[in-house]
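Lab notebook, page 48
Experiment: co-folding of the full assembly
Goal: obtain a model of how the components sit together before planning crosslinking
Operator: M.T.
Materials (sequences as entered):
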Amino acid sequence: MREQETIYTIPVNDAFHAEGTLCPLCRLEATTDSNLIEYYLGPSLMEPDVRQTTNEKGFCRDHLTRMYNSQENRLGLGLMLHTHLLAQRERILALLSEAEGSSERKGGLFSRRSQERGAAEIAGDLAAISTSCVICERLAYTMGRYYDVVFWQYFHSSEFAELFDKGPPICLPHLAELVRTAENTLNRSDRKTFFSRLVERQGAKLEALAAEVEWFTLKFDYRNRDKPWGESKTALARAIRTLEGESGLT
Ligand SMILES: [Zn+2]
Ligand SMILES: [Zn+2]
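Observation: model returned without errors.
Model output:
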């Protein structure tokens, strides 16, 4: 692990040491996400280089909604949206003018030249303005560093490997990310070890979860009315989180 990556180990270890049933990578992502929202609604938004980035990239629907709903620093959010809107107005109008030009060509005397773009490409650029997000970008970068730390520790610290293997189930979206990242990070032999432990760990946990969901449904049978719920009361929420990742279920 490179020296600068050691700063990423504390949040990873905190997430894997935390009590509870939540996927540790969901926990890590949620904490990172909240910190980023706090950062962009905090004093950073008065810094010219931060504003240059937010003017250019903006935020996605999910992050803007959460920034607004947090009720924090509405003035700051307003200042940021104002200059972002002005910057994007230019781009939006340029793209619309391009669309106007392309519609004039349609069916006309001259066929489209190679450097001229069609409506689908212009629409793609318009949609990208909406989805482009400074927080999503930084979140993806930071999560990438966290995956490096997870893999490094898994093969250099038996304590961490045990913590990982015994922890709550990894949700499906993070499982996919782990498999993807392992391909680029681990050598063939470590990959084999890691995947075989994942098979064991996820297999046992998914079986237990399915049994708890089943018991939840069986509790609706009057014959089971007086039997204990066990862990089943929270089984539906845990099943949804395991399938989809943390999504703000209450
Ligand atoms: Zn997760
Ligand atoms: Zn976003």
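Interpretation: Residues 1-156 form one domain.
Next step: discuss with group before ordering constructs.
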